[in-house]
Amino acid sequence: MEYTLPLDIRTLQKLLPHRYPFLLIDRVTDYEVHKSLRAIKNVTINEPFFQGHFPDFPVMPGVLIIEAMAQASGTLAILSSEGRADDEIYFFVGIDNARFKRQVVPGDQLVFEVELLAHKRDIGKFKVVAKVDDQVAAEAEIMCAKRKV
Questions:
Q1: In which domain, by residue range, is 91 found?
Q2: What value, to the nearest 5°, has the Cα angle with vertex 130 and ends 51 and 133?
Q3: How many angstroms separate the CA atoms of 136 and 103, rounded?
Q4: What is the pLDDT of residues 18-50, one digit of tens each?
Q5: Fewer Cβ close by (within 10 Å): the C or N end of the chain?
Q6: Phi/psi of residue 110, each to 5°?
Q7: Which residues of the chain, if any, have pLDDT below 70?
């Protein structure tokens, strides 16, 4: 199934099982099946994690940046598989070479650039770079696996 760009939050909710406050990508601006995807996350002070991380200096937790990268990777996997059945979930199963280069703060827009590196037996490996204003904020190799639930 082909989707019209950009993919908005309603379309993402059809593809991904995540919901507020754990749906961490807002829009897909570009994708090419079996190759690449570009997604965004608008970071606002209203995010629930900023209440505790950190109240006097709000910084988006690195683990949530990684989770957003995994969600973007899973979205590419789902789009490349022409959708997701109701009894399927793409699980985040591995991470390699994760690096954080820049803090992400309220008002930033995270742009995720996902590249499919390999796909075998329902497991995909992706190179993901998260940027703010064309500066690398984080990068990692992410693995996602499709499983029946």
A1: 9-148
A2: 85
A3: 10
A4: 999 999 999 999 999 999 999 999 999 999 999
A5: N
A6: -80, 130
A7: none
Rounded CA gap, 136 and 138, in Å? Answer: 6
Is 2 among the domain residues? no
Centre a 10 Å sphere on the Cβ of residue 5 and count the other Cβ atoms it contains: 13
Catalytic residue flag (residue 53): yes
At 106, which CATH number? 3.10.129.10
Specify the pairing of strand 36-42 against strand 123-132: unpaired
* Beta strand extents in the chain (DSSP E only): 27-32, 36-42, 88-100, 109-120, 123-132, 135-148
Catalytic residue among 18, 34, 53, 119: 53
